[in-house]
C-alpha cells in the first residue's frame, strides 16, 4: 500500500487489528538508552484496523532502528507500531487499562510491523485448529493468571527479525512480555496455550580489573577476575582467559588461563588485550576484558656533544666570507637546536647570532673572532664549544712590468708592434706608459699607443732602439721593463725557382700542369715565366706568366719546360722540369674488397663491398665465390654474386670468407678476399621457443600482437617488453616463435630458464586455453638442462643423455617437475631393487612359515605328562635340549595317565620339546614295563 498511514482515529471496528502493547513496570528514567535496545516479536497488522478499547496515537514520524527505543524511553508509550517506513507510538487513555480482542485474518499485502518491547518473550501455541483464521494478542493483564516465566531468556532467531504473519495463519505464536503473574483472557486462551520457555541463562557481571600499564624491566603482571554474584555454596565458576590482541613478535608466558588469576611473565613491549569468560555449567555466563600495556624501558639521557669544524681557521681579504659547520654535533637521541653567538670580535654594527647547524659569515672585517656554539638535545641538555677565526688585511704587492722579448727587423721593413700586456699585478688595475730610454733619445721613430699595453712603432731607421715600459698600480707602486728593437740594413738575395717534380703521362692523357708556386725569395717574387726548351712541337702553354701553368697538345716523347722567376730588384732564377709522354698500355684490373664489420646474431645478413675495384678502361665483371673453409649455411641474395656488392642472408655463427674475381674487357683479371664474421647471440641463453599448434601461414599480424599481449599477461610484463627474434614454420602444421623478455632500460633480459618455467607453469594452470593458439611446447632455444651434473643435454630431443652408471629418476621426470635428469646411480638402484626383492621374499617366506606353524599347532594332540622323581627332575634340568627329535619307543597304550590342563605344564612340555614323549604314554597305572634303557634314555 502506498502513501502515508490513514487516520488512526477513523479506523473501523469490523477490521480491527489486534495490537500488542508493552506496559513498563517503571518509567525508564535514569536508565541508558542502551537498556531499551532489546529484541521482541513482530506481527503483521491491517491498515484498516480501528484503534479501540482506549488506544490513541502519541506520535507518528519516520521509522527506523530506534523506533522501539523511543517508546521505551517515553513513559506514556504502551506499544509501538512501525509500518510503511513510519513509526507510530501508542498510549492507553483508560485508567483501568486497554483491552485487546481477537482480529480476523489480516490483509497480506498491507501488513505493518508491531514491535513489542519485551525482555522475556514467551511462545504461544495454537490449541484448536479451527481457529487458524484468527489472531489474538495477549497483554500483561491477560497473562496475570499464567505462571511466572523466567525473568531473562533469549528470543529464538526468527523472533529477532522483522517478520509479518502469513496470510494462512500458520504462525505458532507471538512473543509477549511476562514480567509478573498474569491472567489469560478466556477468549485468547481458547485459541492458544502457553508453552514453557527454555531454561533461562543468568548473566554474570565479570570484571578483570582496570587496565594495567607496566614499564620494562618489569615484565610480570597478575590479573584477577571478579564475578557478581558470587557462586552458590558448593559450586564454583569456570574461568577461561583468551588473548585477543598482542604484539607481532611476542614471547609472553601465561600461567593459570583456566583459573581466576592469570599470571603473565616475559612480556615484551606492546598492547595485550585479554578476554575472560566465566560460566557455571549452562545456567550462567559472563565476559570481561582487560588491557595490559607494556612500555619500553625509559631512556637515560646523555648530554649532547657540540662539535665545530673547522675549530680554527684563517682567511685574508678580499675573501670576506666563510662558514663554520656545527652539524656534526651528536647526541644519544637527537640534537634539537643549535645556537651561535659571537663571543669576541672587531667592533661592528651588529654581532653575529644564528640558530642553524651551519654558521655562514659574510662581510667580515680584519680582526680575530671567537664564536660559541650551544646545542640542545630533546631532553633539554646542552653543550657548548668555541671556534676561532682570523681575518687578515688584504696585501698589495708591487706590479711586475713585462715589455716583451727583444726583436729584430730588416729593412725595407721599418715597423713593428711591442706588447706589454704580459705585465701583472695582484689587483689587475695597471696604468701603462711607453717611452724611449735615454740611450735612444737621438733615434727617429713614430710611436702610437704610448699609454696602452700595445705600442705601435713605424718609420724606424737602421740601428738599435731601446724602449721602456712603466706600469703603475692603484697604490702608486711602479715597475719598469726595457725591450730592444734592432733594425738591420737591407740584404736582398736572388729568388730560388722551383718548377716541380718530373712527370710521366700515358696517352690518351695529353695535358698536364706545371706548378712553380714553391719558388721562394727573401722579399717577394715579382714575375713568373714558363717556356718549352725541348720536345715535340705542337704544345701550348696556358698561363705561362703565372706560378701554375697548363700544357696541352702533348704527344709521345720527352719534354723539358723551364721556369724563370725574378724579384723586385730584377734578380732572376730558373728551374727545368721533365715531362715524359708514353703510348697507351692496357693495365690489368685491381680487385678490392671492403670486408663487412662483425655481426652478432640474430642479425643474419651482411654485405661485402667490391665496388672499389678499378681498371684503366672500366667495364669490369664481378664473380664472388665462397671459400671451402666457410660455413655451408647462408644464402646469396638477389643473385648478388655477379654484382659489385655481395649480399648474404640466413647466416649462422662462424667466419665466412669470399673471393672476388674482377675481369676487364680484355680478359685480364684480379682477385681479392673479404670476410664476414658472425658472432653468437649474446642473449642466446635467454631466448625462449614457443611452438604453437597452428600453421605459420594462418597467423596474421593482429593475431601475433594479441598472442604477445597474452604471453605478457602470463609473465606479468608489458607486451612491449617481449622482443620477437624469429617467427617461422616449425613443421607443416605448427609455428615456432622465438622471443626474449626485456629486463628494463639498461638491464639484461630476463633469464630464459626462469621465463620458460614461469610460462610453462602458467599455461599448465590455465589448462593451455588462455592463448589464442594451443601451445605444443615451451622451452629455451638452447637446451639448459644440467642433467644433475651426471650427463649432457641433447639439443635436438631436449633430453638428458646420462653418463655411464647413471640413469633418470623417472618419478621426478614423470610426476614431479617433468624435466629430464640423471639423478639415480645405476649401482644404487640395483642394490635397492635387490634389497626390495629380498625383503619381499623374506616377508612371503615368513608368512608361509607362520601359516604352516599355526596349522601344525592345530593338529598337535594334547601332551601327556608323568610325575618325575626328584633325581630324574634334576637330570632333566641339567640335560641340554637337542634339536633332533627322538623317535618314541612303541609301547602299549595306557589309560591310566595323569593329564595336566594347566598352562604351566603345557609350556614346560613345549619348551622341552618332544624329549619326554617316550616316557609318557607307556605307563600302566603309573608304572612302565621293565625294559632295557638306551644310553640316551638313561641321560633323560
UniProtKB/TrEMBL annotation:
Where in the cell?
Answer: Cell membrane
Against PROSITE patterns, the record matches this protein to: PKD (PS50093)
Top-rank lineage group of the source organism = Eukaryota
- Gene Ontology CC, one term: plasma membrane
| UniProt entry tagged with the keyword Repeat | yes
Q: Which SUPFAM superfamilies match?
A: PKD domain (SSF49299)
Q: Where is the PKD domain?
A: 327-391
TM region positions: 826-851
Chain segments carrying region Disordered: 146-196, 888-940
Which keywords does the record carry? Cell membrane, Glycoprotein, Membrane, Repeat, Signal, Transmembrane, Transmembrane helix
**Keyword Transferase appears in the UniProt entry:** no
- Report biased composition (Polar residues) as residue ranges: 160-171, 180-193
Q: Which GO BP terms sit in this record?
A: neuron migration
In the UniProt record, the signal sequence range is 1-32
Q: Where is it chiefly localized?
A: membrane
Where is composition skewed (Low complexity) in this entry? 146-159
Q: What is this protein called?
A: KIAA0319 like
Amino acid at each position: 500500500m502506498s502513501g502515508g498511514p490513514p487516520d488512526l482515529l477513523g479506523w473501523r471496528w469490523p477490521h480491527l487489528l489486534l495490537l500488542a502493547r508493552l506496559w513498563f513496570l517503571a518509567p525508564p528514567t535514569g536508565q541508558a538508552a542502551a537498556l531499551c535496545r532489546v529484541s521482541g516479536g513482530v506481527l503483521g497488522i491491517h491498515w484498516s484496523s480501528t484503534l479501540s478499547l482506549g488506544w490513541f496515537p502519541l506520535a507518528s514520524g519516520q521509522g527506523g532502528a530506534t523506533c522501539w527505543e523511543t517508546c521505551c524511553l517515553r513513559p506514556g508509550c504502551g506499544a509501538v507500531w512501525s509500518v510503511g517506513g513510519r513509526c507510530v507510538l501508542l498510549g492507553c487513555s483508560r485508567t483501568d487499562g486497554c483491552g485487546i480482542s481477537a482480529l480476523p485474518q489480516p490483509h497480506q499485502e498491507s501488513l505493518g510491523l508491531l514491535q513489542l518491547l519485551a525482555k522475556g518473550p514467551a511462545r504461544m501455541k495454537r490449541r484448536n485448529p479451527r481457529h487458524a483464521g484468527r489472531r489474538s494478542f495477549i497483554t500483561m493483564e491477560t497473562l496475570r493468571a499464567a505462571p511466572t516465566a523466567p525473568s531473562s531468556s533469549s528470543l529464538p532467531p526468527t523472533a529477532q527479525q522483522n517478520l509479518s504473519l502469513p496470510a494462512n495463519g500458520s504462525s505458532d505464536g507471538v512473543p509477549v512480555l511476562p514480567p509478573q503473574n498474569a491472567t489469560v483472557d478466556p477468549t485468547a486462551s481458547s485459541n492458544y496455550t502457553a508453552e514453557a520457555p527454555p531454561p533461562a541463562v543468568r548473566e554474570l557481571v565479570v570484571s578483570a580489573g582496570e587496565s594495567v600499564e607496566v614499564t620494562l624491566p618489569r615484565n610480570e603482571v597478575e590479573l584477577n577476575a571478579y564475578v557478581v554474584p558470587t557462586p552458590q555454596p558448593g559450586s564454583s565458576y569456570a574461568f577461561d582467559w583468551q588473548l585477543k590482541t598482542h604484539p607481532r613478535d611476542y614471547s609472553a608466558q601465561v600461567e593459570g588461563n583456566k583459573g581466576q588469576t592469570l599470571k603473565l611473565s616475559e612480556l615484551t613491549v606492546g598492547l595485550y588485550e585479554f578476554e575472560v569468560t566465566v560460566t557455571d555449567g549452562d545456567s550462567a555466563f559472563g565476559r570481561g576484558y582487560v588491557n595490559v600495556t607494556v612500555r619500553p624501558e625509559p631512556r637515560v639521557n646523555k648530554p649532547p656533544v657540540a662539535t665545530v669544524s673547522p675549530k680554527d681557521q684563517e682567511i685574508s681579504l678580499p675573501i670576506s666570507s666563510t662558514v663554520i659547520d656545527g652539524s656534526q654535533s651528536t647526541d644519544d637521541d637527537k640534537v634539537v637546536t643549535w645556537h651561535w653567538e659571537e663571543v669576541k670580535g672587531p667592533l661592528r654594527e651588529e654581532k653575529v647570532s644564528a640558530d642553524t647547524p651551519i654558521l655562514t659569515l659574510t662581510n667580515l672585517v680584519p680582526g680575530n673572532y671567537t664564536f660559541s656554539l650551544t646545542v640542545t638535545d630533546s631532553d633539554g641538555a646542552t653543550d657548548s664549544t668555541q671556534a676561532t677565526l682570523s681575518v687578515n688585511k688584504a696585501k698589495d704587492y708591487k706590479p711586475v712590468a713585462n715589455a716583451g722579448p727583444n726583436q729584430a727587423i730588416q729593412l725595407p721593413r721599418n715597423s713593428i708592434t711591442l706588447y706589454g700586456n704580459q705585465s701583472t699585478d695582484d689587483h689587475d688595475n695597471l696604468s701603462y706608459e711607453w717611452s724611449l730610454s735615454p740611450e735612444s733619445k737621438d733615434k727617429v721613430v713614430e710611436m702610437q699607443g704610448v699609454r696602452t699595453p700595445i705600442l705601435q712603432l713605424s718609420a724606424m731607421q737602421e740601428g738599435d732602439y731601446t724602449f721602456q715600459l712603466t706600469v703603475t698600480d692603484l697604490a702608486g707602486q711602479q715597475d719598469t721593463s726595457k725591450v730592444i728593437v734592432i733594425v738591420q740594413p737591407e740584404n736582398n738575395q736572388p729568388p730560388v725557382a722551383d718548377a716541380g717534380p718530373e712527370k710521366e703521362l700515358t696517352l690518351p692523357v695529353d695535358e698536364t700542369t706545371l706548378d712553380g708556386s714553391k719558388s721562394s725569395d727573401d722579399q717577394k717574387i715579382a714575375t713568373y715565366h714558363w717556356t718549352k726548351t725541348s720536345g715535340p712541337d705542337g704544345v701550348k702553354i696556358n698561363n705561362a706568366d703565372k706560378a701554375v701553368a697548363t700544357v696541352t697538345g702533348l704527344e709521345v716523347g720527352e719534354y723539358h719546360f723551364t721556369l724563370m722567376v725574378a724579384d723586385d730588384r730584377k734578380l732572376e732564377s730558373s728551374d727545368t722540369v721533365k715531362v715524359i709522354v708514353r703510348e697507351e698500355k692496357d693495365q690489368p684490373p685491381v680487385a678490392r674488397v671492403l670486408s663487412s664489420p662483425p655481426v652478432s646474431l640474430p642479425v643474419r645478413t651482411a654485405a661485402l663491398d667490391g665496388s672499389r675495384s678499378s681498371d684503366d678502361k672500366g667495364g669490369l665483371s664481378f664473380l664472388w665465390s665462397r671459400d671451402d673453409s666457410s660455413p655451408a649455411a647462408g644464402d646469396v641474395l638477389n643473385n648478388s654474386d655477379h654484382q659489385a656488392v655481395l649480399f648474404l642472408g640466413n647466416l649462422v655463427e662462424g667466419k665466412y670468407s669470399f673471393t672476388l674475381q674482377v675481369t676487364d674487357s680484355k680478359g685480364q683479371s684480379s682477385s681479392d678476399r673479404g670476410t664476414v664474421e658472425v658472432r653468437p647471440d649474446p642473449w642466446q641463453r635467454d631466448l625462449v621457443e614457443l611452438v604453437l599448434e597452428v600453421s605459420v601461414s594462418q597467423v596474421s599480424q593482429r593475431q601475433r600482437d594479441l598472442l604477445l599481449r597474452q604471453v605478457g599477461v602470463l609473465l606479468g610484463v608489458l607486451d612491449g617488453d617481449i622482443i620477437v627474434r624469429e617467427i617461422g614454420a616449425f613443421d607443416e602444421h605448427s609455428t615456432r616463435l622465438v622471443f626474449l623478455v626485456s629486463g628494463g632500460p639498461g638491464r639484461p633480459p630476463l633469464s630464459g630458464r626462469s621465463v620458460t618455467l614461469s610460462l610453462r607453469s602458467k599455461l599448465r594452470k590455465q589448462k593451455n586455453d588462455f592463448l589464442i593458439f594451443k601451445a605444443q611446447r615451451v622451452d629455451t632455444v638452447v637446451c639448459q638442462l644440467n642433467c644433475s651434473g651426471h650427463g649432457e643435454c641433447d639439443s635436438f630431443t631436449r633430453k638428458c643423455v646420462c653418463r655411464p652408471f647413471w640413469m633418470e629418476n623417472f618419478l621426478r621426470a614423470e610426476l614431479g617437475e617433468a624435466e629430464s635428469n640423471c639423478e639415480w646411480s645405476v649401482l644404487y638402484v640395483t642394490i635397492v631393487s635387490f634389497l626390495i626383492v629380498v625383503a619381499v621374499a623374506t616377508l612371503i617366506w615368513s608368512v608361509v612359515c607362520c601359516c604352516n606353524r599355526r596349522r601344525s599347532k592345530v593338529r598337535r594332540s594334547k601332551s601327556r605328562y608323568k610325575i618325575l622323581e626328584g633325581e630324574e627332575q634334576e637330570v632333566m634340568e641339567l640335560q641340554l635340549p637337542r634339536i633332533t627329535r627322538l623317535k618314541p619307543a612303541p609301547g602299549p597304550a595306557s589309560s591310566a595317565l595323569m593329564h595336566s590342563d594347566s598352562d604351566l605344564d603345557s609350556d614346560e612340555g613345549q619348551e622341552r620339546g618332544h624329549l619326554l614323549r617316550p616316557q609318557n604314554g607307556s605307563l600302566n597305572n603309573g608304572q612302565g614295563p621293565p625294559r632295557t634303557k638306551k644310553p640316551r634314555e638313561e641321560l633323560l
